[in-house]
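Page 37, top half.
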Amino acid sequence: MWDVVAVGIGPFNLALAALADEVPELRFAAYDAKPRFDWHPGVLFDWATVQVSFLADLVSLVRPTSRWSFLNYLADRDRMYQFFVAERFHLPRREYADYCGWAAERLPSTHFGVTVTALEWRPDRLLWTVRLRDSAGERTVEARHVVLGVGTRPVLPAPLREIRGDRVIHSASYLSYVDCWREEVRHVAVVGSGQSGAEVFLDLLRRQPERGWAVSWLTRTAGFAPLDYTKLVLEYTTPEYMHYFHRLEPAVRDRLIGAQWQLYKGIDSETIDAIHAELYHRLLDDTLPPVRLYPATAVRDATRAGDGVELCCTHADTGSTGTLAVDAVVAATGYAAEVPALLDPVRELIDWDEQGRYRIDAQHRIHTAPTVSGGLYVQNAELHTHGAAAPDLGIGAYRSATILNAITGREAFRLPKRTAFQTFGGVR
């Protein structure tokens, strides 16, 4: 029997595993269906960077002396001086993924190639039954508490969902497909203007001289907007703001999430600058196929046209409509949390809000029926209750420590008490 079973091993539950490793009395296991750790392999560009500081690793913002810190990874890899000289604050994305893989391989509690198929509550034993399937067959384990870290799923807009295929893809799988597109792909459209859309567009531009395709970039927002990375705005991703946000009424929280999209859906300024530089260089070469950017343009419909796709578009300002014929579409249209099927046996024990989302307390525990004494916690499924910090890597260590403190019933990890200069909630 385990004290805690973590379902899914992305960066957040990996942070949980790393911190749990420092609580010797805690019996902890984490399971993931993947054969090994990976992190957004479809957009793992050689040149892309993580948008938060290297201190937002698995542990450092809570336990900087941990052996699972990024700095200890550098020491183990014998790269400390190179990192010191490089003066990097934002890591290459490949390095962050390698760091997480390094930790996942060494943590004794992580188990890959194991699918969690179902979760059941045993009121007679006051335990969760966790059903597992791996190469050896099916089995069950028991746990006092469960932490869901199953991640978010790629979202395709309805018009594109109906025609998805090898040439209509989500950006999450971009690198798995782009090298397979042959000479018949002469025009590629990117739909969506967040960081992933910008990186895919930049990669298509850089491949253009060799591949010879035209590139179009469409966004329904008024412009290709940057991340708001100013210092006081970044305080909206701190624990202090997260606690304030959680105390607000649900309707207010939903309104704020809609208004704060540039905290987590914009484009970093370095990527915007790199795109502009590529576009500027094309002014010196009129032999390349056209590149067009369409702000305030929404895809209202999409249909197959031979081997290609016709995108029916509407302009937000003028109301005009038009059709764009392309050979391939990359939808950088974001991700959304979804309720995993493994919860089907316990759905009636969960307290859902009016929109079918979990009700979640300040310690990231899902509200359940009074008969359920075991904790059911979530990581990165609480944007609606905890705000823009929920998907941010900078909150990972803090959230995991909060969950472990709640589970152990003691301050296993000392949490920072003041994390923002601003006083949220007004003058009292």
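Page 37, bottom half:
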Amino acid sequence: MLSLFVVPLLLINLGMATSPWLLFLLYFIGGLGMAGIGMGIMHDAIHGSYSRNKTLNRYMGYTMNLVGASSAVWRIQHNVLHHTYPNITGSDDDINAPFFLRFSPNAKRYALHRFQFIYAWFFYSISTISWVTTKDFVRMNRYRKMGFLNKRNEFQREISILILWKLVYYTFALVLPLIVVPLAPWIIILAFISMHLVTGFLISTIFQVAHIMPSLEFPMPDENNTVAGDWAMHQMATTTNFAPRGALFSWLIGGLNYQVEHHLLPNICHVHYKSLSRIVAETAKEFGMPYHSQKTFGSAIWNHIKMLRSLGKTVPVSI
């Protein structure tokens, strides 16, 4: 996955993309590699499950920075907020969407949400463009106000690191190609954007179908700010697997088709999830716990579309 990202960008920066079709092809392959890094390398590494070696996990987690995003922001957004509060509106940052998207029946509904099952895919595709431009800065500032990054000079240090990594990313991903590639600048910029469209579509779709589904729950805390049930039950009620028999597919997406096992055991490397899934499924059946799974990725996408459409029609359960 690292090679799928690094090699095409290296060839581009060596001036070997002398035609538009070759440039777009190399950026397209780079987009696949970028998605692979996000799903199969940095995701495990930042969870501390890529390796038993903490130092190796830390350095492999920097691959998130290598593709233009922030490992520090991801650690808070994903590890802390999403994994602790999946599908809880206001707490799970994966469903705290901008006003034009509605990912929870507890979120406010607007008239335009009726069409989100059509236009959501465009915003999925441009999601990583948001990451490499403004999103990391906005969220880092918001997380500081929430009480994160509050150690001595931690926020200032992370902002400096964020800016430095983004300068590195833009230098090799866009600036150098604009200098060395013998093509019109607008073609190069368009090819760069196309790389992100590939990555954004793949990553957003994989992550969203695991939680925004008709069969899953969207619990809310009571007047004492307490969510009913225990932690494990909550994870299983708000998460679904998909395409569990697709071995190659599972490898390509870093085992994220085993979301139930990942949410129960995020500190375990994804290569073990297939074996663990048998144990988890049997245990869930034994104790009458929910165990959601879609047979194919296609059925998962279809049900996700139905959920987006349903959310565009239904009024909020609570606001």
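Margin note: DSSP finds 14 helices and two strands in the chain.
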